[in-house]
Amino acid sequence: MTDIHEDDEFRDRIATINQEGKRQWIYPKKPAGKFYKYRQKVSYFLLLFLIVSPFVKINGNQFLMFNVLERKFSIFSFPFWPQDFHLFVISMIIGVVFVALFTVVFGRIFCGWICPQTIFMEMVFRRIEYWIEGDRNAQIKLDKQEWNTEKIKKKTFKWFLFFIISFGIANVFLAYLTGSEKLLEMVTEGPVNNEGTLIALLIFTGVFYFIYIWFREQVCIIACPYGRLQGVLLDNKSIIVAYDHERGEKEAGRGKLIKNEDRAEVGKGDCIDCKLCIAVCPTGIDIRNGTQLECINCTACIDECNTVMNKVGLPEGLIRYASEDEITKKEKFVFTARMKGYAAVLFILTGIFIGMLFLRNDVEATVLRLPGQLYEHKGNKISNVFTYKIINKTAKDFNSVHFVLENPEGDIKPVGKPVFKIKGESIVQGTLFIEIDPVLLKSDKTKITLGVYDGNKRIETETTNFLAPRNFN
Ligand code: SF4
Ligand code: SF4
Question: Are 108 and 240 within 8 A, CB to CB?
Fold first, then answer.
């Protein structure tokens, strides 16, 4: 069980592990203050976005979907197919550069303000815990006391609520993975007919429950690879949640508040060593030891220290968003060459991505000559046989699809119906013959152009090679 750990202990082990190597439970004090209010607003907006996104459809496409099993992806209602994998990769690279740029400039701001793990932990589960078990001291007391009726009631109620919410998160997670339509279908049909999905749902629920009931801040401290990147991305100019050690320590160091003492005269810093910034920290660290990998930039210590400073009549901002150089050299924020480099890469990649997104067709057709087949004479014409594949990436159906030979003139003879239907988000494959008068062919290998039409509207154009004998005309 915790208490605030001693001054130099942070060098030996992480805050969640005690001297015996066992788990040290963190009981953060309930945060309050200006930043916490902002974070609440941002968090609730993002939570709403996260929950609603898989259930919103634009042009029949789910707003966000990552169906890995069926390889169907939809990002901001743009459907992505395996054929668009290059776009998906670019969007992922942009995401990584964006997060890296943000880390270089603003430290781990993503973790404190945007990361779903922090939002669920701090703004959902932790708040429920405060509501049921009370603030830090009440929680410590409850955990230390015997298993009496009060403790059983509180703990069971908390575990039950945590389980229900974990189950809810698992459902949303599944809506991202399988598509919300399928999820709703399964809900209507009942679990008996969807045993596999129910098992997946229970596994996800179990994972989320384990994380929020027990693993908690260790996700950020131990498991998350992004946190480990901080060491290479941060420099003295990165803006981080920082303790102003110049102001807090001065010549004589920090010290408790002593009545009627003139701190300036004895050289004491502004830090009154109340340790409330540690008590409020969800990862249990002392920010006065400098930037640490465990700091998720949640700003709780800024709010807490500001409250303390207000109470003792000192200026706010002893802990604040600042760079190391701002604190030690009193330098203002500068946009460094590294930041400019990252921003340029991000800008170029985003430009390429937007360009490719708009150039991308809703329909993709491939027409290839049948392997092993050359050509045939059919009357006074030359005939080649092709296979085709048409992918409809949209959610709408195309009802009268047919091929037209655009260049040169000739006949297209599909095997099967000449006009066919392609359902939304589906693939149609088939075989067709193309017959061309040899006088219209330029060589033994002529590039030909086919148009794919839905009614009178051309939806895709494809080129392929047409073979003919060497001395054909
Ligand atoms: S809350 Fe502020 S005054 Fe109190 S220990 Fe932390 S830095 Fe010092
Ligand atoms: S040190 Fe401050 S900002 Fe960092 S995790 Fe702890 S409370 Fe949050």
Answer: yes
319 lines ligand 1 (CB under 6 A): yes
Residue 434, beta-bridge partner list: 384, 412
- Give the residue-averaged pLDDT of 378-388: 92
pTM of the model: 0.81
Nearest to 165 by CA among 211, 222, 198: 211
CA 375 distance to own-chain centroid: 52
Nearest to 306 by CA among 315, 298, 297: 315
Contact 430, 381 (CB under 8 A): no
Pocket mutation for ligand 2, best pick of 36, 298, 305 (most atoms within 8 Å of C-beta): 298
Supply 62's token pair.
């789910």
3-state secondary structure of 119: helix
Tracing tokens 């290998």 back to the chain, one arrives at: 445
Mind listing the pLDDT tens digit for each residue in 197-217?
888 899 999 999 999 999 999
**Quick one: tokens of 114?**
């945007």
How does DSSP classify residue 121? I
Residue with tokens 């807490």: 304
Is 60 strand, coil or helix?
A: coil
Give which of 83, 84, 35, 57 is closest to 301, Cα–Cα: 35
Residue written as token pair 């964006």: 98
**Cα 170 to middle of ligand 2, angstroms:** 28
3-class DSSP string for 319-351: EEEECHHHHHCCCCCCCCHHHHHHHHHHHHHHH
Q: What are the Cα distances from residue 443, in Å, to 218, 285, 375, 446, 468? A: 69, 76, 13, 6, 7
Residue 195, token pair as written in the block? 């045993």
